């Protein structure tokens, strides 16, 4: 029985993927820059799917300062409010801001991580911060927005339920795992290419307590230095079982035994000086009984993400290889359309040239 069947998990806001949440954050950043404040956002989701990493990377990529706190680690209210400062002459007590409070002008993001793992006292204290961007004697600088992460309520997570008084002080969105969005991130983060191919081949493995995007990345990092996985399969199996659940570890060993970790790399496809050799390799890999369209789909996704996120200029040779790949006879039209659509709608203007290829341009335009 899956976790979703065992528990009635409670989250709030639309269910979205990582790419859509980045758009959401971009919108809040525009609000922040025009009004100096933005409505706090709570990002809900299961553990290990990359909520915290997403916010950190958004801040870095969009020129935002970043501060992080984990209120579950706060042992007393002073960790949140700061230390009292008594002025005997004025018979007045104020509070000195704790060191996690930003001093930079911004724009910036204050990430309150795993907010509902804090105890009820801390949650009640955070309410004023959410409402006014201030607490007792200090306030956040202008152009700082608050983003929180939270695990679902109503299940087996050790969380504190939040009532309507705090829930209505923020916007909500629920992040769900999306294998294509994960693969895009993994390509940019230079995760071991064999790991990316494995996840794209077995997308259903990310469904347990131990096999999460976070634990998979930990595993892929541990095997990155192993050049030949087949020759050290016993070690690979030990490492897999140390990071993942047993079923996922078995799946990865099967993946290696079937030589699927040797899927033709996107770089080899795009930089080849003779595409006929690539065509021959692909035909040998795909034209089985039944046809291995699952492997073709994995390669297609790897090539798409590689082209979109590569830093180098798309040379004429690379473009011609890309064209040859899209127009392969073994490529079904639905996969061809999906790839072409993703490429021309990316942020790379040099991919608009695909419209000029009659077979591709006609296919894209026919589906608009």
Describe this structure in words.
- Helix content is 48%, strand content 12%.
- With 368 residues, it is an alpha/beta fold.
- The protein has two domains: 3-176, P-loop containing nucleotide triphosphate hydrolases (Rossmann fold); 180-366, no CATH class.
- Helix 7 (179-188) runs antiparallel to helix 8 (193-201) and helix 9 (213-223) runs antiparallel to helix 10.
- It is elongated.
- The model is unreliable at 1-5 (pLDDT under 50).
Quick tags:
single chain, 368 residues, alpha/beta, Rossmann fold, 2 domains, six-stranded parallel beta sheet, two-stranded antiparallel sheet, 17 helices, 48% helix
What share of the residues does DSSP label as strand, in percent?
5-15%
Count of helical segments?
A: 17
Please state the average pLDDT score. 90
How many beta-strand runs? 10
Gross geometry: elongated
Helix and strand arrangement:
Elements: H1 3-6, E1 14-16, H2 18-35, E2 41-44, H3 51-61, E3 65-69, H4 77-81, E4 83-87, E5 92-96, E6 108-112, H5 120-132, E7 134-135, E8 138-139, E9 144-150, H6 164-167, E10 171-175, H7 179-188, H8 193-201, H9 213-223, H10 233-243, H11 246-257, H12 266-271, H13 275-286, H14 293-309, H15 316-326, H16 333-344, H17 358-366
Parallel strand pairs: 1-10, 2-9, 2-10, 3-6, 6-9
Antiparallel strand pairs: 4-5, 7-8
Helix pairs in contact: 7-8, 7-14, 8-14, 9-10, 10-11, 14-16
Summarize the structure.
Helices cover 48% and strands 12% of the residues. By secondary structure, it is α/β, with parallel strands linked by helices. The chain has two domains: 174 residues, P-loop containing nucleotide triphosphate hydrolases (Rossmann fold, 3-Layer(aba) Sandwich), CATH 3.40.50.300; 187 residues, no CATH class.
């Amino acid at each position: 029985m899956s976790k979703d069947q065992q528990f009635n998990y409670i989250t709030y806001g639309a269910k979205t993927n990582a790419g859509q949440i980045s758009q959401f954050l971009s919108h809040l950043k525009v609000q922040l820059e025009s009004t100096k404040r933005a409505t706090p956002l709570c990002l809900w989701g299961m553990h290990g799917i990359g909520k915290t990493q997403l916010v950190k990377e958004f801040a870095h990529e969009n020129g935002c300062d970043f501060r992080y706190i984990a209120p579950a680690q706060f042992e007393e209210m002073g960790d949140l409010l700061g230390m009292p400062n008594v002025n005997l002459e004025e018979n007045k007590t104020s509070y000195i801001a704790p060191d996690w409070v930003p001093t930079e002008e911004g724009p910036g993001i204050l990430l309150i991580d795993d907010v509902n793992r804090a105890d009820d006292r801390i949650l009640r204290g955070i309410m004023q911060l959410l409402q006014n961007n201030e607490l007792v004697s200090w306030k956040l600088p202008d152009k700082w927005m608050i983003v929180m992460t939270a695990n679902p309520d109503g299940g087996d997570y050790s969380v504190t339920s939040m009532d309507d008084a705090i829930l209505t002080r923020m916007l909500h969105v629920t992040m769900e795992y999306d294998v294509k969005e994960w693969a895009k991130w993994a390509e940019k983060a230079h995760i071991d290419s064999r790991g990316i191919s494995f996840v794209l081949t077995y997308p259903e493995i990310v469904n347990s307590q131990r096999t999460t995007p976070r634990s998979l990345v930990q595993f892929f990092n541990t095997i990155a230095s192993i050049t030949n996985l087949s020759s050290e399969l016993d070690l690979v199996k030990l490492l897999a079982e140390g990071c993942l659940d047993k079923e996922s570890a078995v799946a990865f060993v099967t993946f290696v035994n079937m030589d699927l970790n040797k899927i033709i790399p996107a770089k080899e496809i795009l930089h080849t000086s003779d595409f006929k050799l690539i065509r021959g390799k692909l035909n040998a890999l795909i034209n089985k009984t039944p046809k291995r369209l699952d492997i073709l789909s994995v390669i297609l996704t790897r090539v798409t993400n590689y082209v979109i996120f590569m830093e180098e200029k798309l040379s004429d040779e690379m473009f011609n290889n890309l064209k040859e790949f899209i127009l392969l006879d073994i490529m079904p039209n639905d996969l061809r359309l999906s790839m072409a659509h993703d490429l021309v709608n990316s942020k790379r203007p040099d991919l608009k040239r695909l419209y000029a290829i009659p077979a591709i341009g006609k296919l894209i335009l026919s589906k608009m």
